Amino acid sequence: MTSSSKMQEKILIIGPAWVGDMVMAQSLFITLKRRYPDSHLSVLAPAWTKPLLDRMPEVDASFDLPFGHGELKLSARRRFGLSLRDAGYTRAIVLPNSFKSALIPFFAGIPVRTGWRGEARGWLLNDCRRLDKHKYPQMAQRFAALAFSADAPPVERVPDPRLLVRRPDVDRVLARFGIAAPNDDPSAPMPKRLIAVCPGAEFGPSKQWPAAHFIATCADLIVLGWRIVIMGSAGDQAVAQEIEAGIVTKLGTSGGAKSDPRCFNVAGKTTLEEAIDLMAACTTALSNDSGLMHVAAALDLPVVALYGSTSPDFTPPLATISRVLSTDINCRPCFERTCRFGHNRCMTELAPARASSAVIELDLK
After folding, report:
1. End-to-end Cα separation, the chain, in angstroms
2. 101 HSE (CA, 13 A, CB side)
3. With DSSP H G I counted as helix, E B as strand and the rest as coil, what are the percentages for the chain, rounded to 5?
């Protein structure tokens, strides 16, 4: 391909619908911009992904996908695709493996439509590839591989996702939650020993470390001078409240208080924008294998990642410094949402002391 044709590339990405997957998709975006520096890159994805895409400098434009999760709406997708016919897209890359995700580029008549094989959609994609899982073991590698031709050898290392944040936004969210006072000096140091604790995982309970283990670890860290920020979505509020209350009980916070001044529970209270900016202010992250874990890694925080039913061989934290903790129970990884045996030993047998030690070790780096 000539350099002049590279300059004309206008690429439409059909993006994933999970936080972690969208973060890892940035590896593809970076790869595309390196291959085609003068290209225009647009991402079509659910509206909630915009705070992530806004922090990815490789993305030139993002558009809200006007369909809910699981909705086929064939006629509406056809109309939407037809509305893109005059946009001048030269290629489309479809990241989800579903049939419906390939419909819009097909109806838009985009000349090159690339994606991995899935759900009998080969007739929608004219560059439909069979995935070799041994060749591309990681999700980020599978995404980035779609920037190259089907017969290209795997690159030795794909670029890690890196989200950009602005210091005024970080200071604003710290002030909102009373974690730090407003700061007019952008050169002032960020808070020290502030750890983001992420106890949720939308995939299911098999990925969730027990609340009692989070309580024990957080209490140990508070005694050592850390402050805790419990983060998560509205669906994580119950476990976040359990952890907050457990910390108060374990530390015997004086005066019968229901909260500890060294623990900030913001689960369900932040927008995704605020969660990203607040995470950027933290020193370290302790997280289940979840979307927020990938956000922390993309902010290049040191990450202590807890793996149960899933595997770091597939979705590792792509931070410069990380520690992956798991058990060697022989039934993991099973990739099940709930434990098929009902014991969830892959998580319950992952001792709190291991997490505390890992956080302390990373703090000394």
Report:
1. 45
2. 25
3. 35, 15, 50
CA 149 to chain centre: 26
Strand partners, 61: 42
The token pair at 87 is 């946009």
Q: What long-range pairs does 319-326 form, CB within 8 A, spacing at least 24? A: 319/160, 320/160, 321/362, 321/365, 322/297, 323/358, 323/361, 323/362, 325/350, 325/354, 325/355, 325/358, 326/350
Torsion of the alpha carbons at 145, 164, 227 and 207, rounded to the nearest 10: -20
The pLDDT of residue 190 is: 75
Please choose, from the candidates 266, 237, 87, 112, the residue with its C-alpha nearest in 3D space to the C-alpha of residue 174. 266
**pLDDT per position as a tens digit, 283-330:** 999 999 999 999 999 999 999 999 999 999 999 999 999 999 999 999
Residue 186: the pLDDT is 67
Tens of pLDDT, residues 167-205: 999 999 999 999 986 666 667 777 789 999 999 877 778
Ordered by where they begin, the domains of the chain are: 3-145 (3.40.50.2000), 167-363 (3.40.50.2000)
In this predicted model, what pLDDT tens digit does every residue of 155-167 receive, in sequence order? 889 999 999 999 9
Interatomic CA distance for residues 280 and 299, integer angstroms: 6
* Whether the Cβ atoms of residue 353 and residue 325 lie closer than 8 Å to each other: no
